[in-house]
From TrEMBL:
The chain crosses the membrane at residues 32-65. Keywords: Membrane, Transmembrane, Transmembrane helix. It comes from the Bacteria. This is Uncharacterized protein DUF3137. The keyword Transmembrane applies.
Length: 318
């Protein structure tokens, strides 16, 4: 990471400029939260002494003042966050490959998310952002952060209780597969357990046991269950070399991935428990480690084309 910064003068200058803005935002946020903390502390102490009215009054003043500070800094915070993605992440992308671009407010539509056939559970809340697109040699690709949730409601003595569960949170990666497929092939994690895996295949992938593709790579079969609507085409896609490459990609991912091959596209779902490309507030931008995670994520996604050998054109599109 340090070498990466040393080689990129434009990025160094951008980081130095934005570090000034980060410090301003951080200082104001610290001030606001400090006053809110003081107000809460004063109120608690007053309540302990039985001074309810005076405790609330004395505590409310610094809380309100702290809230005003945070409200006033909100526009500057949003501008800083937007500039971080456009200027720092955007510059890092261009340094890696001039074709790469980021659109912070765009993403992968919920319709395309459903189209992957990786997650068929009804979506009740959906958010996507940070669309990165580009071309690695002959292969076009794009990826974005996605957070899809399912709502469950149940009646209790106190009324309707609503709970939310994640359908998926992470990155959806899409690449040109350079062949128009007539069938659908799904590769899903096998480590869900037999009972859960059975439910998963029926409710998520819309395939049954008769659609399981028997493959000759025992390591791949231990890690994944493969479903396909055309046995011959699924095996044609999942060559011995492709299976080894998917295993390597999975071993270097934070969690077990899922894949689908539909028409002329390959979809890969990378589960993550964090948001990517979020601007740090209380960590210095001058510390190379601050950007390390985001830049590594970019490089990892970019290298998928190479790792899966997608630039080797063994087929022509029909």
């Amino acid at each position: 990471m340090q070498n990466y910064l040393n080689d990129n003068v434009a990025l160094q200058n951008t980081i130095a400029t934005m570090e000034v803005e980060r410090k301003k935002v951080a200082a104001e946020q610290t001030k606001g939260f400090t006053f809110i903390g003081i107000g809460v502390g004063v109120a608690i102490i007053g309540l302990l002494f039985g001074l309810l009215f005076w405790a609330v009054l004395a505590g409310l003043i610094p809380v309100v003042y702290g809230g005003i500070i945070l409200y006033r800094i909100n526009d500057a915070l949003k501008a800083y966050q937007q500039a971080y993605k456009q200027n720092i992440i955007g510059e890092a992308l261009k340094f890696l490959d001039p074709s790469l671009t980021i659109s912070p407010k765009e993403g992968i539509s919920s319709d395309e998310f459903r189209y992957t056939q990786l997650f068929n559970k009804s979506i009740d809340r959906y958010k996507t952002e940070d669309l990165v697109s580009g071309k690695a040699d002959k292969t076009s690709f794009y990826f974005a952060e996605v957070h899809a949730e399912h709502k469950t409601e149940r009646q209790t003595n106190k009324g309707t209780e609503t709970s939310w569960s994640d359908i998926f949170k992470g990155i959806i990666f899409v690449a040109d597969f350079n062949k128009h497929l007539s069938s659908v092939t799904i590769v899903k994690p096998k480590d869900l357990g037999n009972a859960i895996g059975s439910w998963f295949s029926k409710n998520v992938f819309s395939f049954s046991d008769r659609d399981v593709i028997q493959l000759e790579n025992p390591d791949f079969s231990r890690a994944f269950v493969t479903y396909g609507s055309n046995q011959i085409e699924s095996r044609y896609i999942l060559t011995p070399s492709m299976m080894e490459r998917i295993l390597y990609l999975n071993a270097n991912s934070e969690a077990t991935i899922s894949l689908s091959f539909i028409e002329s596209r390959m979809y890969i779902a990378f589960p993550l428990d964090r948001n990517c490309f979020d601007a740090p507030i209380f960590e210095s931008l001058l510390n190379p480690a601050t950007l390390n995670t985001d830049i590594n994520t970019i490089r990892f996604m970019y290298d998928i084309v190479k790792e899966l050998d997608l630039n080797t054109r063994i087929w022509g599109k029909a």
